[in-house]
Amino acid sequence: MHLRNTLLLALLCAALGGYLYFVELPREPNSEGIQNALDFDVANVTHIELEHPGRKVVLERTEDGWTMLEPVEDLADERAIDNLLEAAHGCQITRTLDAVDNLATFGLDHASATLRLRLGDQELPALRIGKNAPVGGSTYLNREGDETVHLTPSTFATRIDLKSNDLRDKRVLRFDQGAVQSITLARPSGDITLAMDDSGIWKITAPTAHDVDQSTVTSLLSTLLSIRATNFIDEAPDLRPYGLDKPALRIKVGLADGVAASIDIGNERQGKLRIRSNRGATIYEVASWLRENLDQDLNHFRDKSICNFAPDDLAELRITTEGGETLNLSSRDGGDWVAPGRDGNVNGEAVQELIRELAALQGFEIAADSPDDLVALGLEPPKRTIEALSQDGAALATVVIGSHTTVGAQTEYTAMRQGADVVMHLREFVFDRLNRPIVELVSLPAASEGSAPPVPDSGAGDGVDENTLDDTAAASEQG
User: Do both 199 and 250 map to the same domain?
Assistant: First the structure.
């Protein structure tokens, strides 16, 4: 049995050796060194045709960039084209085979890929890709109209194995973020409109006027510009299967020149969200998680600032706990924090942390507008009241914080600035920093050196019979 396997292996080795000796070795390179299959300047390419069996892509360079002409008319992916041209420019001939009688032997009678490049009026010889060579990680290649067969690294064939979707521009929206003047989120239930005022600040103008958290607008615009298609549906005369006949959400971006860009949000299928822009009939499939980033409500955009002052402007803090305990902290002229009227040491690090949290305090969502019942929101009485005063004694902010238990037995944390009519929800860790125990801000005074521990009250019973203790001691001495 082992002898037969050995003989079979020997026959295979002999066959391979014979192929190499009689087929490959006689075909030595007819020129010294490695040469490029094509010699051209990438920047001068104006036309590309990439053909595979059953499919063809045609690309044209215009003043505005690359455009796809076939199989659909659309903008092309500039980076993907750069990679394609880089692959063609770097395609090297590592060996040339002479005396080739039959191109079919090398898969070049019906090429697996053909690449044609044009530089203005100059058309370069088309590169035709054949089979992979049996050894050496190479692929057979020739130039159209020339029956000479060459070898090139197989990576070239891989890099140009591209479909139209690979070379198509995958951006769904294109606009200059700096030129945006308005954003409308249109739903059947009503529109939300954001507009930039004359000072360059975003405001909510509909359905009601509110200040805006500026970062939320920047984030939305960045998300819109970052949307990339994973698939294209070009022929869809009926929009109903995609949820786009009556979209649940349309986002419209108004630009300074009066032009608008918009997308409609459709349904989801197999983890893909269907959307459509106003620049064409194509339906795009994109990552489904984008819906969560795009479909925002009014409160998402509202400004949730509670306090906004410079920590260096602060000179005095007045803190009142739920139980009525008060603590005054003072730092006049930027000195160390002290607690007038209190013994013990001020924990400067803890106070600074409290100040940083208070100076830029923000909620994470709106709890209530103009609430009638502060008790239900845990703010009457509050868990803590904090007053911040400036160097000249002016009020920078007065904030109350509280907590309450919901119907679902969850604890919610709330905050409200005095004089405002909006209650915000706080994160638990923010609430804990503002509501930290007084002893963490000012330590208890240390006991005097040499002081005796407190003496128990002789009249207080402790459950131990003194006569029993005496009897026990006497017995111990006798032992």
Answer: yes
Examine the domain organization and report whether 126 and 67 are in the same domain.
yes
For the segment 48-106, what is each residue's pLDDT rounded down to a tens digit?
999 999 999 999 999 989 999 999 999 999 999 999 999 999 999 999 987 778 888 99
pLDDT surpasses 50 at 283: yes
Distance CA 301, CA 294 (A): 12
Cβ atoms of 272 and 288 closer than 8 Å: yes
196: domain range? 177-301
CA distances from 235 to 87, 238, 280, 281 (A): 32, 9, 11, 8
SS3 219: helix
CA distance 167 to 246: 31
Domain end point (choices 301, 320, 349): 301
| Strands 202-206 and 210-211, sheet pairing | antiparallel
Closest C-alpha to 294, from 241, 334, 253, 347: 253
Is 473 domain-assigned? no
Tokens, residue 320: 């009142």
Model pLDDT for residues 110-164, shown as the tens digit of each residue: 999 999 999 999 999 999 999 999 888 999 999 988 889 999 999 999 999 999 9
Pair 336, 426 in one domain = yes
Strands of the sheet with 411-417, listed across from one edge: 326-330, 314-321, 384-390, 395-405, 411-417, 422-426, 365-369
Q: What is the pLDDT at residue 235?
A: 82
**24-36 pLDDT per residue, tens:** 443 444 444 679 9
Q: How many CB atoms sit inside 10 A of residue 362's CB?
A: 17
Q: Tell me how many domains the chain contains.
A: 3
On the question of pLDDT at 179 being above 80, the answer is yes
